[in-house]
Amino acid sequence: MQPTPPPGQRLPFPPLHAAGEAQLAPKPGSLPHLRCPPIDSETYGRLERRVGRCHLNQRLGIEHDFEARVFGQGRTFFHIENWYSVHGLIRHILRLLWLHNRGRENARTIEVRHNEFKLEGLPREFDGFTLLHITDLHLDISEDIPTALIDALNRIDDYDICVLTGDFRAKTFGPYQPAVAAMQMVRPFLKGQIYGVLGNHDTIRMAPEFENLGIQMLLNESIALTRGDATIHLAGIDDPHYYRADNLEKATDQIPEDAVSILLSHSPEMYRHAAYANFDVMLSGHTHGGQICLPGPIPLMLNANAPRAFCNGYWRYHSLQGYTSAGSGVSIVDVRLNCPPEITLHRLRSI
Hints:
Elements: E1 10-11, H1 16-19, H2 21-24, E2 39-40, H3 41-51, H4 53-66, H5 87-96, H6 100-107, E3 111-119, E4 130-134, H7 145-153, E5 161-164, H8 177-186, E6 193-196, H9 206-212, E7 216-217, E8 221-227, E9 230-236, H10 248-251, E10 261-264, H11 271-276, E11 281-284, E12 293-294, E13 298-299, E14 313-317, E15 320-324, E16 342-350
Parallel strand pairs: 3-16, 4-5, 5-6, 6-7, 9-10, 10-11, 11-15
Antiparallel strand pairs: 1-2, 4-16, 8-9, 12-13, 14-15
Helix pairs in contact: 3-4, 7-8
Protein name: Ser/Thr protein phosphatase
Keywords: Hydrolase, Metal-binding
GO biological process, one term: lipid A biosynthetic process
């Protein structure tokens, strides 16, 4: 069993003695600067107390082994967000088509969308309860992306809680502090209680940093939301798409069977699992709505192992209602075509 390191020491992950130094030592020609920095003992201990040693070691180990892999790993085989050599080609093609500048402007014009969930059994005290949903922020992809999000947030003020469904970082590997610093810029413009989950671009090392900013991260956990004598439940799972670190069983442990419950999942790929776990609502992102779409709009790629109908906007599966946001940010290139970015206000209605 791996001991918790003494205070002040950093723990390389996974521990070299756990799998043999020859197996985990950097290979000739590797780029160690692309790795996340080693986790410090304080952060390790804090996360261990939250999620347990097994989950933490698995998450950190998978990050170490697979965080930038293009093929394999996760619920889909191909991960274009990790294929960095193609990003310049996409930009070049857009410039040739005279679409690059327009696409960059589109990516910085964030829409405020509205959605209603009509729920049987919703306590009357929660009728009209509103959640601000932000996802796929990718805050460090460009210096002006946080400013675009702040501009959108300044156009709204009527919501009860804010939920963030992952992908705070632009890249899927390497340093994460620029994303944390950008989140620190945005944080004063978010009101009320804020809850979040991690996405496939996020290292679990980021969770304590966000909690230091007053964002409660749900790592296969749930919390009770109360109004008067009434209660509903909000659950969140760790990234189900790439790291497959979700644990619905643990997330639902504290939720009564007949309670109204909402699930935060970075990817809509969990729709079937969420429905049979008796969730009423699932909020997701990940797909960006395609980000670059043909007129229609017709997405060229959604990068999710889920029906297309579940990959953008409102959807329903049996008794589960869901919403997959197109996201406020951009990935791969800072461009959007025929697919505007969004933040979404979800209002709960009792029927």
